[in-house]
UniProtKB/TrEMBL annotation:
<keyword id="KW-0046">Antibiotic resistance</keyword>
<dbReference type="GO" id="GO:0005886">
    <property type="term" value="C:plasma membrane"/>
</dbReference>
<dbReference type="GO" id="GO:0005524">
    <property type="term" value="F:ATP binding"/>
</dbReference>
<dbReference type="InterPro" id="IPR017871">
    <property type="entry name" value="ABC_transporter-like_CS"/>
</dbReference>
<feature type="domain" description="ABC transporter">
    <location>
        <begin position="16"/>
        <end position="245"/>
    </location>
</feature>
<dbReference type="InterPro" id="IPR050763">
    <property type="entry name" value="ABC_transporter_ATP-binding"/>
</dbReference>
<keyword id="KW-1003">Cell membrane</keyword>
<comment type="similarity">
    <text>Belongs to the ABC transporter superfamily.</text>
</comment>
<dbReference type="InterPro" id="IPR003593">
    <property type="entry name" value="AAA+_ATPase"/>
</dbReference>
<keyword id="KW-0067">ATP-binding</keyword>
<dbReference type="InterPro" id="IPR003439">
    <property type="entry name" value="ABC_transporter-like_ATP-bd"/>
</dbReference>
<dbReference type="GO" id="GO:0016887">
    <property type="term" value="F:ATP hydrolysis activity"/>
</dbReference>
<keyword id="KW-0472">Membrane</keyword>
<keyword id="KW-0547">Nucleotide-binding</keyword>
<dbReference type="InterPro" id="IPR027417">
    <property type="entry name" value="P-loop_NTPase"/>
</dbReference>
<keyword id="KW-0813">Transport</keyword>
<dbReference type="Pfam" id="PF00005">
    <property type="entry name" value="ABC_tran"/>
</dbReference>
Length: 319
């Protein structure tokens, strides 16, 4: 982390500093010794499967949940002792179920502006936020009549009402279709372009890979690794996965093909994780022809964050 700061020079101003964070629920160590640093102006992702401890971590950083142990500083404030002050400088995305269905989009934004006691022209601010989240035409629509994606965008607009330095988004794209997800990513990038820091949780590795400047991979309450998506992927000994459907039985030889570091099978579908795509494919072709086996649907997938997760945990993010 310090290395990254050095590389970034003056830009790398710490905005969140977490040390030794722990939280237990009965026998469950939901957060089990987390250290993290988030820099100003980055989109920082916490990636992990269900139950990894992402939400619990986020809620402690937001000052909503009390840690059992550890220190959290956000923009110079202690998130435990100064949680009241913290509220003025952070924006937290609410679950859309917490919105008032019978209010219009504009009324909802106006209500939140008032609750925050935001100064300046309220109307202007509401319109600017609607514009930013592409809901300008929906201002008078009831919240209950918005689509899932539109409700998510509204909940993000609400998180921006108090002009926060740091914005927290908990699984902002869960349940959205691919297009709505992409629109939301665009919005998150825009929030960064305004100079804000975004911290989000996700269990979609492609979201972390495409959107986040840096990613902390979490499992069982711990951070396994934290870096830029590219550095995480480059640090792997595996550089691709070869996917192929095998008609027949090439058994016995796949593990020994050149470059292969792991084999998974499901019926005739085979996934070969390899450190040398070319040698693996040549070997695979040779093996298939020697044994009179037919190969179909040969595809090569570059290594991604899923492979990073597998290499640290030995299992898939989706398990
Ligand atoms: N209020 C609570 N009481 C008891 N156990 C809890 C509570 N909140 C979370 N847990 C447990 O703590 C662990 C971490 O949960 P958390 O919600 O932080 O994970 P997550 O990574 O955000 O998962 P998801 O992706 O499903 O939201 C889980 O085992 C969960 O069951």
């Amino acid at each position: 982390m310090e290395e990254l700061a050095a590389r970034r020079g003056a830009e790398a101003e710490e905005v969140i500093r977490i040390r030794g964070l722990r939280k237990r629920y009965g026998d469950v160590a939901a957060v089990d010794g987390v250290d993290l640093t988030v820099y100003r102006g980055e989109i920082f992702g916490i990636l992990g499967p269900n139950g990894a401890g992402k939400t619990t971590t986020l809620e402690m950083v937001e000052g909503l949940r009390r840690p059992d142990e550890g220190e959290i500083e956000v923009a110079g404030y202690d998130a435990v002792r100064e949680s009241g002050r913290l509220k003025g400088i952070i924006g937290v995305q609410l679950q859309t179920t917490a919105l008032f269905d019978y209010l219009s989009v504009e009324e909802t934004l106006a209500l939140f502006s008032d609750l925050y006691g935001v100064g300046g022209s309220r109307r202007e601010r509401v319109l600017r936020l609607l514009e930013m989240v592409s809901l300008a035409e929906k201002g008078r629509e009831r919240v209950s009549r918005l689509s899932g994606g539109q409700q998510q965008r509204l909940s993000i607009a609400l998180a921006l009402v108090n002009d926060p330095q740091v914005v927290f988004l908990d699984e902002p794209t869960t349940g959205l279709d691919p297009q709505a997800r992409r629109n939301l990513w665009e919005m998150v990038r825009e929030i960064r372009a305004q100079g804000r820091t975004v911290v989000l949780t996700t269990h979609y590795m492609e979201e972390a890979e495409e959107l986040c400047d840096r990613v902390a991979v979490m499992d069982h309450g711990r951070v396994l690794v934290c870096d830029t998506p590219l550095s995480l992927i480059r640090s792997l000994e595996v550089d691709a996965t070869v996917l192929v459907t095998v008609d027949g039985r090439p058994d016995g030889g796949l593990e020994r093909l050149p470059g292969v570091r792991g084999v998974e099978r499901s019926g005739g579908d085979v996934r070969l994780r390899t450190a040398d795509v070319q040698e693996t494919i040549i070997g695979l072709m040779r093996l298939a022809s020697e044994r009179g086996v037919r190969l179909r649907n040969l595809t090569v997938q570059s290594a991604n964050l899923e492979d990073v997760f597998i290499s640290y945990t030995g299992r898939s993010l989706r398990d």
